[in-house]
Specification:
The protein has 197 residues and is an alpha+beta fold. It folds into two domains: 6-71, no CATH class; 100-194, no CATH class. It contains seven helices and five strands; from the N terminus they run ααββαβββαααα. The strands form two sheets. A three-stranded antiparallel beta sheet has the order 3-4-5. Strand 4 (84-89) and strand 5 form a beta hairpin.
């Protein structure tokens, strides 16, 4: 839509349909409303968990026919939700980074150039925040290391000096060792080896 208020308009419009459906059905079909209780939406991305196929069965009653919904996941055990690729393995959610821009037939400029007017501290913060985002999403060390390496390669392609990138990685690791080692259940040496420090 291109306007500043577009996300708000989309969110409120979809909310109005959902609110009408729930208020209409709360007394008539309480069980259905409770099954839809595990349905989550961020603007136009909808995720359902353990809803006994309630959303799939009733979405045409919730939204008008002019609104086309496209199911993105192919199985009930795997889905791409916002920037997370998640799957269920042995009753456990396994998450990794999902970036649909990787599939675009053109390059997307997602990081500031190294020769920008931004200070070195600001560029450092961008890199550390991106590493923090990757860490918070990835369930296992291999996924974290792979996505961190992708980030590093992207930065080097954009002209960042390898020593600067390495310094940012060290800073991230030093500030997060307890959390990292606890989450991935590995030794510090194993993490440093995988993280290539």
């Amino acid at each position: 839509m291109g306007t500043i208020c577009a996300p708000y308009l989309a969110n409120l419009t979809l909310f109005s349909y959902e609110f009408k459906f729930i208020t209409t059905n709360i007394n008539k079909n309480y069980r259905l409303c409770m099954e839809l209780n595990n349905t989550y939406r961020y603007i136009d991305d909808i995720s359902t968990i353990n809803d006994n196929k309630a959303f799939e069965t009733h979405y045409k009653q919730i939204y008008p026919s002019s609104l086309t919904l496209k199911k993105m996941n192919t199985t009930d055990l795997e889905a791409d939700v916002l920037d997370i690729k998640t799957k269920i393995v042995d009753r456990t959610f396994i998450n990794t980074l999902f970036d649909k821009r990787r599939e675009f037939p053109f390059l997307c400029n997602v990081l500031p150039a190294h020769d920008t007017n931004l200070s070195a501290q600001c560029l450092r913060n961008v890199i550390i925040n991106e590493l923090t985002r990757i860490f918070s999403i990835c369930s296992n060390l291999e996924s974290f290391a792979d996505n961190s390496k992708r980030l590093e390669n992207k930065l080097l392609e954009k002209g960042y000096h390898s020593d600067f990138v390495r310094h940012c990685k060290k800073s991230f690791a030093n500030n997060n060792f307890p959390r990292i080692l606890d989450k991935y259940k590995v030794s510090q040496n194993k993490f440093l080896e995988e993280f290539q420090l």
